[in-house]
């Protein structure tokens, strides 16, 4: 149960800080500053959580990451289900916190939709959005699997590397889809936006669920193939 609580807290923090930063500063392509701040907010959230709950749950805080770990043999199906439920609930809780701050407090939401993902950057193309999310998630999960592989030693820098990788994929992805690579991060804000009267993010939500899960599954299969089996010891 402690692992699930940790995943709930971690996802809550990710959505609150990442989407909250996007809502506060906006993501104007012409200015670009909002891009960097939002990318850093998501990446630094991972860093903070990796070094606080990483020893408890592994700090997946992302159903796509958990799927990659499951396929790689790093967790069982029971824990996978528990993680995903906790992550989605954490995403809802994070969106609820943002609603309390921005709506109740009268703060302007610069994204117009709780920092929810969308397809405006790819001109509404479901296919292009799906491809973007698959590619970005593939890169992100490949990095995670490599950094956390017990066969190789990355010392105490694992959390920093993973956080920087999330920042890295956001730099490209924000202008295209808002960068999901995480269904839990997408579901909470999209539902909050729909409830508040902005249904636009919700109609494409499936892209930000399917894309990350497919990208993570591909990453897990590819990484297992590249890694190979452990050598037999004498």
Mean of the pLDDT scores?
A: 92
Content of β-strand: under 5%
Total helix count? 9
Number of strands: 0
Provide the helix percentage: 55-70%
Q: What's the Cα radius of gyration?
A: 17 Å
* SSE pattern, N- to C-terminal: HHHHHHHHH
Helix/sheet category? mainly alpha
Name the shape in a single word.
globular
Please summarize the sheet with the most strands. none
Describe the structure.
The structure is a single chain. This protein has 9 helices and no strands. The protein has helices at 2-25, 33-57, 63-71, 77-103, 126-147, 158-173, 183-195, 200-203, 207-227. The longest helix is centred in the middle third of the chain and has 27 residues, at 77-103. It is globular and about 55 Å long.
Descriptors for this entry?
234 residues, mainly alpha, 9 helices, 69% helix, globular
SSE inventory with pairings:
Layout: H1 2-25, H2 33-57, H3 63-71, H4 77-103, H5 126-147, H6 158-173, H7 183-195, H8 200-203, H9 207-227
Helix pairs in contact: 1-2, 1-4, 1-7, 2-6, 3-4, 3-5, 3-9, 4-7, 5-6, 5-9, 7-9
């Amino acid at each position: 149960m402690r692992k699930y609580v940790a995943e709930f807290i971690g996802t809550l923090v990710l959505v609150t800080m990442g989407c909250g930063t996007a809502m506060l500063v906006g993501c104007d392509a012409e200015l670009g500053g909002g891009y960097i701040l939002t990318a850093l907010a998501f990446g630094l959230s991972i860093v903070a959580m990796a070094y606080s709950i990483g020893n408890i749950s592994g700090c997946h805080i992302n159903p796509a990451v958990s799927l990659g770990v499951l396929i790689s043999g790093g967790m069982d199906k029971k824990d996978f289900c528990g993680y995903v439920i906790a992550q989605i609930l954490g995403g809802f809780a994070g969106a609820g916190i943002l609603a309390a701050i921005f709506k109740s407090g009268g703060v302007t939401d610069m994204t117009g939709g709780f920092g929810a993902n969308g397809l405006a950057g790819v001109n509404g193309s479901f296919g292009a959005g799906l491809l973007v999310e698959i590619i970005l998630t593939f890169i992100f999960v490949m990095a995670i699997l490599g950094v956390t592989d017990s066969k190789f030693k990355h010392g105490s820098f694992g959390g920093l590397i993973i956080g920087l990788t999330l920042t890295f994929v956001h730099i490209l992805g924000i202008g295209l889809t808002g960068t999901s690579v995480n269904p839990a991060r997408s579901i909470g804000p999209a539902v909050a936006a729909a409830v508040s009267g902005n249904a636009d993010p919700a109609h494409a939500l499936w892209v930000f669920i399917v894309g990350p899960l497919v990208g993570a599954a591909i990453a897990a299969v590819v990484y297992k193939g590249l890694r190979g089996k452990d050598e037999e010891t004498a």
